[in-house]
Amino acid sequence: MLPLSDTLRVDKLTRIFDNMSESYKIFWFKALVEKAHEGKQTISYDEIIDRMIRDAWYMVTEYRLNLGPSDTLEKLVRYAQEISGIKSAEKPDRVGSFLENCGDKELRRMKTTLTRFVPYRLQAPFLAGINEHVWKNREATIDFINGTDGAIYSVSRNSGLEATVEVSQGWMEYIERNYEIIMGWIEYNMIVYLQRRNPSVPGISSKLRPPEERRLAAAKKYWRHIIDVRPVVNIYTDVIMDDKDISIDHFVPWSYVAHDELWNLLPTTRSVNSSKSNSLPLWDCYFDKLWKVEFEAYELLNKDPETDRLFKKCEKENLNNDEIKYKLYQPGLSREQFSGQLQEILLPVYESARNMGFGEWVNNERI
């Protein structure tokens, strides 16, 4: 719920995301609010669209979220990555710097397509009485918007990416006064929109921005101790591991699952983890090795007090589903039961990630 105002039509603001067929309305308004919060009252279309690309970058390139069928912003993000060579997990400022200095004609053409409707249609709830005849004429639409009391912003007559919007003083003050609440409202609407477009993807709320922290310290201590107690085979190289070069790998990539659950974690080396990156280990090649390594660790829980102690520390951060905890880590499971339970938990997640476009990987150096 957005804070009310004695002078502004907040009820109309709450309707700006009605009837969204593509994502650009919500990203446009988010960029506008961010820029206004930074103190910019007059903002060019170019600046807003660059911020939209930056805000959507991680969602599209790293998490591979679908922004909508044939979504214009998604295509723009993918093209920008293609011509820039910037990594999917790059920091937002690096993406923004590239966009500000890029003179690629096709990129500018694609950016211009976003200016044809959203700067005007976003404010439709404020434009009582506007008709389709006016909408079809850019100049008439600008006149209507600029003559409307209470609109969020007015629009300049400049063409293309050089055109600007000017946020009204009342809305500038409202944004500054209620910035955190407005951003929370935008994010809620974004989660609802993205979940509808990505119904089988877990952790949408964790995929609106780059991750701040991954909780792997307890899992790393757990696996390091197990490696000290008994031989553990690196499933990707078939080499016995040592505790000097250990990296915790997400079997199904973190960029899909957006969690650090223990049943999806295993030890490997830093070089292999880097090579695997955001790919899916080929199921037929690696799952049989995975469950055996995980089962050997499971066996130690009842034999080695220190393994049990470290496992209990992992439980606090790396086992958040009680049903899965009971199915996979209850005492007395046979090898066949453990393998079947792990496959039942992991395979649907794996297949869903594959359907989202995460490519399969084999350690070619091993082959």
Sequence of strands across the biggest β-sheet: 1-3-2
* Low-pLDDT segments, ≥5 res: none
Query: What portion of residues is helical?
Result: 40-55%
**Beta-strand fraction estimate:** 5-15%
Main sheet makeup:
3 strands, antiparallel
Q: What is the residue-mean pLDDT, rounded to a whole number?
A: 93
Spell out the blueprint of helices and strands.
Layout (H helix, E strand, L loop, with lengths): L9 H4 L10 H14 L4 E3 H18 L9 H13 L7 H10 L3 H9 L4 H4 L10 H4 L2 H9 L6 E3 L8 E4 L1 H9 L1 H19 L19 H13 L17 E4 L3 H4 L7 E4 L1 H7 L3 E2 L1 H18 L4 H14 L3 H8 L5 H21 L4 E2 L6
Structure, described:
It is a single chain. By secondary structure, the protein is mainly α. 54% of the residues lie in helices and 6% in strands. It has helices at 10-13, 24-37, 45-62, 72-84, 92-101, 105-113, 118-121, 132-135, 138-146, 169-177, 179-197, 217-229, 254-257, 270-276, 283-300, 305-318, 322-329, 335-355; strands at residues 42-44, 153-155, 164-167, 247-250, 265-268, 280-281, 360-361. The strands form 3 sheets. It has a 3-stranded antiparallel sheet with strand order 1-3-2. It has a two-stranded antiparallel ribbon with strand order 4-5. A two-stranded parallel sheet has the order 6-7. Helix 2 runs antiparallel to helix 11, helix 3 (45-62) packs across helix 4 and helix 4 runs antiparallel to helix 6. The model has no long low-confidence stretch (mean pLDDT 93).
